[in-house]
From TrEMBL:
This is Tumor necrosis factor alpha-induced protein 2-like. It comes from the Eukaryota. Residues 1-46 are annotated as: Disordered. GO terms for cellular component: exocyst. Pfam families: Sec6. GO terms for biological process: exocyst localization; exocytosis. InterPro entries: EXOC3/Sec6. One of its GO terms (molecular function) is SNARE binding. Residues 1-10 have a biased composition (Basic and acidic residues).
Amino acid sequence: GGDERGEERRRLPKLKNPTKFWKNRRKQNHNHTEADSEVDGVEEQREELLEEVSRKLILREEQLFTQDCPSEDEDQLHKDLEDLKLHIWMAVDNTFTSPSSSGQLDVLRSAMASVQQQEVQDRRWMETGPEDRFPAWRPLRCLSTHNALLQNMVESRLTKAAEDESSGIDGLSSPLKREVCHLGRRVRDDLLTVARTVKDCYPANMDILNIYAALYHQRFSARLTELASSGLGVDDCSYLLFWVNHCYPHDILEHEDLDGKIKTACLGSLLLQNHLNRLENQYLTHKEDQVKLWLSTALKKEEESWLNGNMPELIDSYYFSPLAVDVIQVRQSQHSDVICICPGVLQSPVCVQVCYRDLWTSVWLDGSLPVVSCLLDSLSRHLRDLTDLKPACRQVRRCLPVYLSVSHLSLSPPVSLSLQSLLSVVHRDVVLRYVKRMMKTRMKSREQQGGGAQRMKEDAQMINDFFREGVRCAHTHMCTLRQADRQTELLPGQTCGGVAKTSVMK
């Protein structure tokens, strides 16, 4: 029996010099002699035998530990297993070195098959009884070690990417922008490499693409959180938000080779909500001040022109100024920027920026702070402004796709001035945000759950009553407006000749 085991061990490939082993593999020389090619072929064959080596080592282990007494072969077996593990980790560590090389992919595939074999053997030994002999090195925990190695690899690659100054992104104006761009590119390129080639080297049940996606997301998120906490200028703030809200979720996670394969819902946002809120508030405040300054300057120039005797153009007995068109263009431009950088603020045709931060607080639970009631009162005031439009303004609204901005209420063109449609969209947005806030709340005590359930029932009833009454009033109001419009349309016929009057009479 001992001679057979010795012969079995002698037939195994020698894995005692991993440095030379991997050094030979990385040599790329297209002018090999025939002898060199044969040597490379032998080395490649030995690399591809990792899976076979693992299988034979497991067989040796099984034979060795069925003996009644310890053997000197245990030390040698342990050493051979450590050599095998070293080769496996070197194969994993070279994942991104030459990912398009078929030889490298074969080595990685064989290494992962070895990991799976060793995991099965770990479980086999864990199921043995306490009276059985047990290898001191078990469990090897190859899969756990593999995942820790991937984490170290990801951290190392992103650290190097952040320090890289060789890429051609000189057009970015600040160190923060360049670093974020480097990090984002590295995340994108490595995830695409995994999706296109590396994942085929792993068993499907490992879902290696999502393992890598989670590791890159965590590290990228950690670095961006550090940057977000460092006190950013407006320019850097907007660039960081652009990556968090647009580039990462759309250009990377929704890339044609990644879309639908990465569990984006499990990843979440790159920044925690409190960091995101702070940056978005900084950006939006800047944009608001910027628009106010532009509009104030435009109005001041218009007033100066009038004061200097340059009267506005007279059209149909009305003074006309192109300032309104300029205002609409400014509003449209800024609206587009905000949608791109802060989509969470303006994520629907009509968006109500609602803050439900006081939900699940003690003052909400005991009913002393009517969160939803205050919200609906604010909405009522904003929506009331939309009903108090003069007939001429309503006529213009039907003809021109104009932006409507009332505090936190933003209406994107083109849109009809249907108050009922408006209420429907606002209703949906209010409910959606309420439910999302509830879903994000951690489990409370039994007493708090009971109080919260009662508050939610009251809030739901209040929201439902508010919008149902709003739709009823809107219908009545619109009927009144249509009747007023018809009466107004009759008046111009008296001064516009017989054509208009005749057409009305018909």
